[in-house]
């Protein structure tokens, strides 16, 4: 069932207060971030070396695309549009599948991802926003520092600070979600181990399995990470603003293509509870296609969409 959103509360939850429950990002979180950010580029280098002088292997391409799509569904449909903003409702099995698929992206446990993102919406591009590119000083130097901070630097200084009830009570009260979060390192192993196991099963050699790990694991994580990071950085700096919002969020078609529709970021900040981000003509939004298909077969319900009247009455003051 599709419905117009009755409210466009910035966090997707009403009555949420601004709160910081940790003074800094934890050492363990920083260490995991280093591994998640630094190790995948090694996969890129190895993949380039493998390609030198020979063509692509169908299995490697299939693993890269397959796990990239699974990651995209997990983060865009699951972590973002469902768990963070409640753009639709789903049963426990679907909730569990989406939570696990989001966890294999190595972007942090579900509750950490959601609480950080809800704070971003509550304070978008204002002091307290975990990853705004607009709070690092003036001039070219400030702009470059802000871009780096929003893209990757924030994960070492402000990631995971919002761990209290203010932004995540609904998730902390869910026993299944707490259990999936506790197994986060297991999902990390699955994320890397599954392509390795498939490569071993198909090719029967350690070298073949390692090659599958590089393509379906390390390279896929690297590419999807930086596509997702671009929503925080590029989509708050470059693009169009067709709708009025309280921040500098912008629509960027290239980021939208790479992130299954998340690049329609101004649309999203204008109508945060909408399960559909590509709300205007010609805006490709594969995550919405997945949600609509889920609704058609009964796996999703109460799907939120902005009413046409709200779209007409919320144009941007400035078009760029």
The SSE order reads EHHHHHHHHHHHHEH
- Which structural class do you get from the secondary structure elements? mainly alpha
Q: How many structural domains in the coordinates? A: 1
Rg? 19 Å
Q: Looking at the structure, what is the overall shape?
A: globular
Q: Largest sheet, described in full?
A: 2 strands, parallel
Give the strand line-up of the largest sheet. Answer: 1-2
Percentage of residues in helical conformation: 55-70%
| Tally of individual helices | 13
Overall residue-averaged pLDDT value: 85
Unreliable residue runs: 5-17
Beta-strand level of the residues, as a percent range? under 5%
Structure report:
The chain contains 13 helices and 2 strands, in the order E-H-H-H-H-H-H-H-H-H-H-H-H-E-H. With 320 residues, it is mainly alpha-helical. It has one domain. Strands 1-2 form a two-stranded parallel sheet. The protein starts with a strand and ends in an 8-residue tail after the last helix.
Task: List its traits.
globular, 320 residues, 57% helix, two-stranded parallel sheet, mainly alpha
